[in-house]
TrEMBL record:
Gene3D superfamilies cross-referenced by the UniProt entry: NAD(P)-binding Rossmann-like Domain, Vaccinia Virus protein VP39
Source organism per UniProt: Marinithermus hydrothermalis (strain DSM 14884 / JCM 11576 / T1)
Entry protein name: C-methyltransferase
Pfam (any one): Methyltransf_14
Domain of life: Bacteria
Domain C-methyltransferase: 277-380
């Protein structure tokens, strides 16, 4: 057996500290039947911590199990809260860095919502690369100005030569050889110091602090903190212009360019600091799971109707890690493409908010607290007043 090594720095044997067997290898593939959802392939999670650079990875990850296709439904664009965040981020990049009349390449562009924003806000041209890209879902106002490439970036690195800005949001965490990948981007840019890069990934420090086992899933084989993300890019030959947390401290945003003189930013923790956080998570995460199992057992004993709000990866990880079945009636999601589908692994049906008007749940589990106001407003509109329980927020 080949010993694992850190995919961010090459150091040997990242220490395993959290293991979950048999989790769905995909969280947001559309499952049109409960049977398919229950039978969907599973893999093993074994989070390993690198004491050399602070990077966290799934030591047991097998990329051959993945299926990135047009069945992949990752968009969060149906949420007004998320849309506002994306618009503010896009507008800020255009205004601060003068991205106007330029060519913007987005790696892992999903359904192209963010790329379309950049194209429209700065009168730019876009290149969108993603195997799950569906050109017909691009806004009509931007479609003619975007070159759609339904494939992986590795097969089209040459297109980087055309780019004045390279964007990559919520894609790097899906990539196993992160050091090689960032070096690939760096080589694609060459020595053009005027090319801007912007990467966005989840923040693993928050996951550790909150014992957020629902934010650990197979698709995410790579986990970053401010410190480990900054070290990865500097080692690849980038200087950092911005590095900060956003979206309720859930996401990390890095802005940089080719160079070696970038500053250090507040919050960039050392590997030693992150190692202490890993140790605390390791001792407390099982207790966090037990507390949730007890709550579900109590609700079931009391005959309460419980639903989960959020049919994405958090919901899949929450249901499968806890082994929940009949304890949860349905999963709610505002994305119409998910409604009528089933959750990979657990087989729960995904329904629209309107379904709740007849179902009348007693308890609604909010998978992402940042959407609480949105959800409260929708429940009020439906004339419902269930108990709202937010994951990651102390009871």
């Amino acid at each position: 057996m080949v010993e694992p090594y850190c995919y961010a720095c090459g150091a040997p044997n990242p220490r395993a500290f959290y293991t979950v067997d048999a989790v769905p290898v995909h969280s947001v593939l559309l499952m049109p039947s409960r049977d398919e959802a229950l039978r969907y392939p599973r893999g093993r999670l074994e989070l390993g911590f690198c004491s050399n650079c602070g990077f966290i990875q799934n030591n047991a990850f097998d990329p051959s199990l993945h299926e990135y296709s047009t069945r992949y439904e990752e968009t969060q664009g149906f949420s007004p809260t998320f849309t506002r965040f994306a618009e503010e981020l896009a507008r800020g990049l255009v205004e601060r860095y003068g991205i106007r009349g330029k060519t913007v390449l987005e790696i892992g562009c999903g359904k192209g919502e963010f790329l379309s924003l950049l194209v429209e806000l700065g009168d730019n041209r876009g290149i969108g690369i993603d195997p799950s890209l569906i050109p017909e879902r691009l806004p009509a106002s931007a479609r003619e100005r975007i070159l759609s490439v339904q494939d992986f970036y590795e097969n089209h690195v040459d297109l980087t030569r055309e780019a004045d800005a390279v964007i990559c949001r919520h894609t790097l965490e899906h990539i196993q050889p992160v050091q090689d990948f960032i070096q690939l981007v760096r080589e694609g840019i060459g020595n053009r110091r005027d090319v801007l890069v912007c990467f966005e990934v989840p923040d693993v420090a928050r996951v550790l602090e909150e014992n957020a086992f629902w934010d650990v899933y197979y698709e995410h084989c790579s986990y970053f903190s401010l410190g480990s993300l900054g070290r990865l890019f500097r080692e690849a030959g980038f200087e950092l212009l911005e590095l900060y947390r956003d979206y309720g401290d859930q996401y990390l945003i890095l802005v940089g360019r080719v160079g070696t003189n970038g500053e250090r930013f507040s919050g960039e923790e050392s590997p030693k600091r992150l190692e202490r956080m890993v140790a605390v998570f390791e001792t407390r995460v099982q207790e966090a799971m037990d507390v949730w199992r007890e709550r579900f057992a109590a609700w079931r004993a009391a005959g309460k109707r419980v639903v989960l709000w959020g049919g994405g990866s958090k919901g899949v990880a929450f249901l499968t890690t806890l082994g929940l079945g009949e304890e949860v009636g349905y999963v709610v999601d505002i994305n119409p493409y998910k409604q009528g589908m089933y959750m990979p692994g657990s087989g729960h049906e995904v329904v629209s908010p309107a379904f709740l008007e007849a179902y009348r749940p007693d308890v609604v589990i909010v998978m992402n607290p940042i959407y609480t106001e949105e959800i409260q407003a929708e429940l009020a509109r439906l004339g419902l007043e269930p108990e709202l329980v937010r994951v990651g927020v102390p009871a």
